[in-house]
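Tutorial, part two.
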Amino acid sequence: MYAKRSNMVENESRKNISRHILPTSSNLLGLCFVILTFIKLSKIANETIIDESIGTLIILFLSSSVLSYISMRTKRKSELYEKIADFIFLAGLCLLTLIALVIIFEVI
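Running the prediction step on this input gives:
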């Protein structure tokens, strides 16, 4: 009885990760579009590879959003989808941090 209850709590906590990744990844996806628009309007896209990097971020955050949604909707392999979404989301955050630093040093 206790093991069954423990598994239910553990499954719920895993599902909570996807519920956090999905909205956060979607918000960061929108932020990437705003940053891309800013870069195109400020004309620094021709001098750097920031716009290509932002395109990569868009793909990463979109993939993370889709995979976290799939992990919430499916019963089979939901852990696998959630782990992949979590890894992609973390990679996107790291790349976003690097791009933000490059933008700061380009603008200043």
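The chain has three helices and no strands. In part three we will examine how such features are distributed along the chain.
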